[in-house]
Design goal:
17% of the residues are buried. This protein is 26% helix and 47% strand. The chain is α+β, with helices and mostly antiparallel strands and 66 residues long. A hairpin with a 2-residue loop joins strand 1 and strand 2.
Length: 66
């Protein structure tokens, strides 16, 4: 079962359990706020949701800073 974690305004992390940890995708939301927006990138496998969220926040910051 996947979980959606809000990161910043208009960005979420979609978390999916995998056999060896948690996988994730950082997504820019559609104008209507749905999580079917644009997938920006895939986060590497992490051992916890907290680690996955921290990695995703750093990656999103780097993406936005160019």
């Amino acid at each position: 079962m996947e979980t959606i974690i809000p990161l910043e305004s208009h960005y979420v992390l979609r978390v999916t359990p995998e056999r060896d940890g948690l996988a994730g995708e950082v997504i820019m939301l559609n104008g209507d706020g749905s999580a079917q927006g644009t997938r920006l990138f895939t986060a590497p496998l992490q051992t916890s949701a907290e680690a996955l969220e921290a990695w995703s926040r750093r990656a999103l910051q780097a993406y936005r800073e160019g």
